[in-house]
Sequence to fold (246 residues):
Amino acid sequence: MEFNKEQNIFGIRVLSDNVIWIWRNNKSAVVVDPALAKPVIKYLKSNNLDLDAILQTHHHSDHIGGTKELIKEWPNVKVIASKKEKDRIPFQNLSVSNGDKLRLLNKEVEVIEVIGHTRTHIAFYFMDKVPVLFIGDTLFSAGCGRIFEGTYKQMYDSLKKIKLLPQNTLIYCAHEYTKSNLLWALNHEPENQNIKNKLIEVEKKIALKELTIPFLLEEEMKINLFLRADNLKIFSYLRANKDAWV
Ligand SMILES: [Zn+2]
Fold:
């Protein structure tokens, strides 16, 4: 577990490689993609925090699994999810669409639709000391989400949307896949010094049991082959190659 003091965003590792993000102030918290409820309840209660909202990026069980139990503890919590996923994200009570703006923890949070991993998927973006993006399973450090339900074109277009955000955006993804992604990327670009340096940095963090995420968009533009793919054909080749590699 780690606490990013700059952003007031705290990561809890659960299951094999999921990270639940808790964004908080002194009184309230917003939780992103709670795979499980117990560790979230423990953290919020021990810090005397009220749960204001649950953000759901997509319907997978390792993102919504804890929501039902959290609602039992905080019956007035807002459960914010895509209105296209009312069936598969059943507890949502605030349904949103691309471009919607929400007021959470005194910040304006924008909904950005990023389809590809699933047939719909949303991200949440807001401006703090630096811009913050909760991206779910669309982008990982040195990698991107598997295309389970969408098309290569949808995922490629979603990554293009992310690239248009400010370069100092801090990106909070939902899985700790960084090291294996870097090993794959290095296999493609063995001379890429940025990838080599990042791998050293990540191995140090892992040895210290620290999270390797969030990550900076600016840095990612140097090491993430999916973000750097110049066209859909290259992107599709890389995604298929990565699927076969792991
Ligand atoms: Zn997923």
Summary: The first strand starts at residue 2 and ends at 4. The chain has a mean pLDDT of 95.
